[in-house]
Amino acid sequence: xxxxxxxxxxxxxxxxxxxxxxxxxxxxxxxxxxxxxxxxxxxxxxxxxxxxxxxxxxxxxxxxxxxxxxxxxxxxxxxxxxxxxxxxxxxxxxxxxxxxxxxxxxxxxxxxxxxxxxxxxxxxxxxxxxxxxxxxxxxxxxxxxxxxx
Length: 149
Fold this sequence. Notes:
This protein is mainly alpha-helical.
């Protein structure tokens, strides 16, 4: 049984190395070569572009060089003459939230007086944190609370 396992591992390794070497030595299988393929309707069997037919950018890519910059294509105009672009407008401002990490000995009224100047706004904090606080009289140190504006 051990001998069969060793033979199988060696054969699998040889097969994997052979396949890797075969793929690495085939220039027609490289990414650059596959990118430069353009179907030719007159000669369907010819699927490669000759180096003379490449633009400057395509030639640089085929030679493994960085492409040169080219002007961006213009967007087509809509029938009204307005360029066809998509703009997203935000209808309401993003509201920033304050957070507070509860320390040992803090209560909701102490936290309220720290952020609002009055201990009477503890109910606002409790309402914003209903899923975190189960008992308003017992808040655990290390609890992250949302402080509403």
